[in-house]
């Protein structure tokens, strides 16, 4: 970690890629009303034909930065792939939470994940899993799923994040770019079931744009995850 990240005398995090060994990942997918999540996607991202979104809750035992809990709100989107000249599918993180300072700073500063600190939990009652995110005494996100069937991994394309660093002058941005990173997953076990949701806004967390029309499916995976180096895919139009 020699002078890779601030503070230079004692860097916060090392250079990626990062490896999560024996991660536990709970995905709670739902359909949004058509057009409801368009405002969650910064230009030039565009909504996909299928208004699919979801909550993610994960136990992330990261080899390089130490273990942490993570949760997020993801929306399926379309972006222009400059390498292939095609329009491709990705998932945009509109909300993202972790419970360690290393996970927060590395995710925000390197890829642009919009991370905040929160209390995140995975709780089991038999075959039922409950994922929650709590901040300021408010349960912001909650998903409950009874796993009674096999679950198959769904490749949803790269994780896409808006990396935004305001200028110290208060005028404009030092960085305003969309970044993409295609994570790889080695799935060891997959289960699925019906899922229920709860979403609330808090004093420092606005979920008013998030709408659920109908549940799709809950998915749980034991897996190894590699979070690679990413690449800029477009300038943000702020």
Describe the protein in words.
This protein is mainly beta and 238 residues long. The chain has a single domain, classed as Acetoacetate decarboxylase-like. 5% of the residues lie in helices and 57% in strands. It has one helix spanning 101-111; strands at residues 18-31, 46-47, 52-62, 66-81, 86-98, 115-117, 119-125, 128-135, 138-146, 149-150, 159-166, 173-181, 184-193, 195-199, 214-227, 231-235. Strands 1, 2, 3, 4, 5, 6, 10, 11, 12, 13, 15 and 16 form a twelve-stranded mixed β-sheet that branches. Helix 1 links the parallel strand 5 and strand 6 (115-117). It is globular, with a radius of gyration of 17 Å. The two termini are 33 Å apart. The model has no long low-confidence stretch (mean pLDDT 96).
H/E element sequence: EEEEEHEEEEEEEEEEE
CATH topology: Acetoacetate decarboxylase-like
Q: Beta-strand level of the residues, as a percent range?
A: over 45%
Low-confidence stretches: none
Number of structural units classed as domains: 1
Structural class, judged by helices and strands?
Answer: mainly beta
CATH C-level class: Mainly Beta
Shape: globular
Computed CA radius of gyration, to the nearest angstrom: 17 Å
CATH architecture: Beta Barrel
**What fraction, in percent, of the residue positions are helical?**
under 10%
Distance between the termini: 33 Å
**Average pLDDT over all residues:** 96
